Amino acid sequence: MKWLHIIVFVVLNTCLFGQNLTVKVSATTQNPSLNESFKLEYKLVLDGSGSVQINGRIGVKKPDFSKFKLVSEKAGRSGFNFGGFDMEMALHQYTVVLQPKKEGKYIIDPVSFQIGGTEYKSQPVTIHVGAAPKGQVSAPATNPNLFGKIQVSRSSIFKGEHIITTAKIYSRYNRLSLNESDFPMADGFWNEEIKSGKEGWPVKTENVGGVMYNVYTVKKDLLYPQKTGELKIPPFSATLVADRSFFNNGTQIKIKSNSPTIKIKSIPNEPANFSGMVGTFSMDAEISKTELSQDEGVDIRVKIKGKGNLQQMGDLPLTFPLDFDTYDPQKEEKIVSSTSGLSGYKTFNFLGIPRTGGEFNIGPIELVYFNTKSKQFETLTSDVWKIKVNKSVDNNAVGSNTVDQQKVTVLSDGIRHIRESSVLFSKDQLIYRSWYFWLLYLGPLLLVLIFSSVNKYLKKRPNNERITRQKKAAKIALSVLEEAKSNLHNNRMNDFHESMLSGLFSYLKNKIQMELISMNKETIQTSLASKGAQEETILVFISIIEKCEISQYAPTSELGSEELYNSGIDTIKKLEHELVN
Amino acid sequence: MNWLISLLILIFCSFNGIASYQNQAHFISANQLYNAGDYDTSLLQYENLIEKGIFSFELYFNAGNAAYQVKKIGKSILYFEKAKKLDPSNGDVIHNLTLLNKLILDKNTAVNKSKAYDRIMSALSRSPNYWSWSAIFLSVISMVCFVLYQLSRSKRHQKIGFMLGSFSLVLSVFVLVLAVVQYNYFSTINSGVIIKPSVTLKIAPNSDESSAFILHEGSKVELKSSNEDWYEVIYSDGKIGWLNKDDIREI
Asked: Per-residue DSSP letters for A196-234?
């Protein structure tokens, strides 16, 4: 038999690992309130059918439960579990009962089962711990046999979300009739009663603290908070008669229910243009026409439909261009209330009448709401309608009296006729700012400056020449006289006298700027005298000139000529001394 | 008479080249179309010239007339205003503008500017290059005088030359200033005319801003400041608002 065991073991092991082992988690609630204990069940489950034998111990690795109060825990092998038609086999099971210590959101780490070296992990569990409900837990009734209770669907909501309040009467009496009741309106809520239908709300039985009660639902309300903060729902009061029968008047009992408090939070990061609407909505918007003539109306129909606080919807922000006459929109709505809140639609019909022609843009209509599905703010946006308004042909439609006035003026006077001819200019023909304008304007002035400086220079240069010639006058004259001397030695007397004269004249010309034409005895005398020459020297100079002139026509001796030459040189040298300037 | 005018224009144009001659021909043909009653086509031709950067008092004046005939009041006022800018004291253009201002929707409370200023501007704006050429001419005159002054031997001639030269130099500087003033007057845009049938002015340069007031086609506004797409304008009654540059045409 031993070999058979081995075979079975091998087969089973292959079976075991061939099949899927998963860890399933179930919680009695994932949203417990404070101090409400809840149970978590972790099951190591084999998918599919078949039997499995586990060899060896199954270990359980527990996460940290320190954030909760551990009420009890149990681990062990469980048998087959027949749940419905599904047969589920839990190989191992771990159960823990926890009680929250604090409000908030907690993630409980996975529990894992260990078989041999393999580990099977569960999913992590998220637990939202809400505030401890204040009168919601089975109220300590003054009369344990009969008490009223207001149950709220949720105790903490966002503004714009709805709650449903259910007024219930818990009774242990067999016969009960309601004499009178008072349901005060809850302050700060928009209230809509939910119709029960023909049969009324069904009577149920409920176990409160181990005692069975008949539970009568008296009233169900749909409430939409209008403000944030903690709002109290006022208790209802009722007078009931119990155990009334044909023989018995019964006992009259007055009851007053609890008064639950609702915490209403504002939605975080609320945009400035938030409409206040919460739910799921859609928008249909259409325009009647996009081309029209002046003074003809244009309709814009906007339909908002969906689920949520539709009744709270104010006006839609549609502004026509300022040249339009506008009217208050026509509204139409159909809203149905049920336990899941309000649903239905609202339509707005806008009418605008353009008073002038032109092209205009209308829209878009925007509606910002909080989408409860996606948990964020969303915007419904309509199209932007481009409309063309044709100016009406009849100008009188404008209705201004100036037009009439104009007609009179046109008849009597009219517009002045066009000009037949013109000198046209091109913008690039403007010479100002062009480079040649400045050239032409500044050029002449520049030329004047150049001209005057050149002129000055030219006037200065002859002066210099005169001065150098003045300085060199003696030298030039002596070199000419040198020529005269060579003529004398060669016995060319005529030439001698001529060169003597030209030497003396060149001296006068260069030294005191006398022109040859204006030279005669008197002018030479006055000119030399005015330049500071001695009377005596002047006379000698003139006599030399005279002698030379005479000798040109009457031959003289060579001896006299030698003397004439020497005295000429002497006189020039003397004059050179005397004519300082 | 017509052939004489054509001849004169031809002579003038021979200085300015073929393009200029073509412009003249276009202008004349647009005038003929106007006189024949084909206002649409004549306006189109005037506008073609204007778009090419051609301008003259008469061109603007005729374009304003053509626009008036086809009931484009905004454009008509725009062109008359442009003509008026070139010759502010011209009686015909003032007459036509007064007529047109009665046809626009917005009540115009504008007070006419001082007449003296208009007359000075009219005098200045004889022809766009008038003062520029005058400045050049005077500059040349002063050059000639100064050269003569320097070349002249006689003291008297020198004196006359110097005085004339200095006088024309001072005068040419003055005329240059006039040319600058005239150019700046032409090239600065400080007002505009609404050309869309109805314009909603905003309180800030953004179409999402709230509206300040409405102006209609043909109203003249002063331009105060601008950014890329918007002008801040002052209407004649002192209201201030912003409008898109597409809604307005500069004068």
From this structure: --TT-SPPEEEEETTEEEEEEEEEEEEEEESS-EEEEPP
